[in-house]
Amino acid sequence: MTPRKYLVLCSVMVLAALGDTSLSRGMKQVGSVSPEHWTRIFVALLSPWVVGGIVLLLGFMASYLTALSWADLTYVLPATALGNIITAGLARAFLHEDVTPKRWIGILLITVGVGFVTRGPALTANDSGPQGNECQPVAAQGER
Amino acid sequence: MNFAAWIATLLLVLESTAGDILISRAMKQIGDLQALRRRLGTWRVVASVLRNRTFLLGVGFMALGFFTLLAALSWADVSVVGPACSSLTFLTNALAAKFFLKERVDRRRWAAALCVAAGVSLLASQKR
Questions:
Q1: Taking the complete model, does pTM exceed 0.95, yes or no?
Q2: Are B28 and A130 in contact, with CB atoms under 8 Å apart?
Q3: How would you write chain B as a 3-class SS string?
Q4: Whole-angstrom Cα distance, residue B117 to residue B113?
């Protein structure tokens, strides 16, 4: 794992947390959208928080796809679960939610899980390499 | 939570897992995106991702999952559906990655998946 790859994993965590928080704030401004008046959802697209959230989540998707191109799914998902803690922190900062003991235990469990997975290799599968796409991987295997 | 909500939650977990597995497989088929971007440029890499059928199928499952989530939320509280779905998906992904992606899910990764699933469940159940 190179520092650049750790940066990609950090981007997955931070962009997802910021995107979710931004969308959440935007949707709270727009108000609840009932199924009878579903077209009101398009009003949400006028909110800068919603637009910002969508842009941030597009960035998250790009980082997530990049991470999956050189690491196992069972590595990427737990390793980026710290994003849930960032989301909880942002929700607390913006919405002044309390961090209950139950939530602290959740944070501790996620941290332990991330610790477990990040001490192992990022890639264990795909010995056969790429399958049938015109783009061939050029990454040095030594990086992994 | 009623029977329909349980079925919708289960369906949501399956669709999310299928989406993650297909997208992960597509990314392995395409190769290291950072290295490809340096060699081919951003737009050619984006085009190769968008042309990959496995990726598009994965996105289709994700979209299906989104609509199933909306249905599930109309039958049950988000405080129940959210944690149940996010924690179960960590476990089903580990299982599916072992069988469909041939990843070596050792004890360390199972422990990580279990810890994170339990942690996310505890965190999410307090959210709303």
A1: no
A2: yes
A3: CCHHHHHHHHHHHHHHHHHHHHHHHHHHHHCCHHHHHHHHCHHHHHHHHHCCHHHHHHHHHHHHHHHHHHHHHHHCCHHHHHHHHHHHHHHHHHHHHHHHCCCCCCHHHHHHHHHHHHHHHHHHCCCC
A4: 6
On whether any CB of chain B is under 8 Å from the CB of A131, the answer is yes
**CA B45 – CA A72 distance, rounded (Å):** 20
How many Å lie between the alpha carbon of A90 and the closest alpha carbon of chain B?
12
What six digits make up the tokens of A52? 């910002």
Q: Tell me if B120 and A106 make a contact (CB, 8 A cut-off).
A: yes
- Token readout for A105 is 């235990």
Token output for B54? 């496995």
> Distance between CA atoms of B52 and A39, rounded to whole angstroms?
32
Tell me, what amino acid is at A140? Answer: A
Q: Do A107 and B123 touch (CB under 8 A)?
A: yes
Helix axes of A48-70 and B33-40: crossing angle, nearest 10 degrees: 100
Nearest to A19 by CA among A66, A48, A63, A52: A52
Would you say residue B76 has pLDDT above 50?
A: yes
Lowest mean pLDDT across A74-78, A138-142, B17-21: A138-142
CB B117 within 8 A of CB B98: no
The yes/no answer to whether this complex scores an ipTM above 0.85 is: no
Q: Kindly state the average pLDDT of the residues A15-31.
A: 81
Name which residue leads in pLDDT, B83 or B27: B27
Computed from CA positions of residues B124, A80, A11, A129, in that sequence, does the dihedral angle turn out positive or negative?
Answer: negative
Q: Check pLDDT > 90 for residue B58.
A: yes
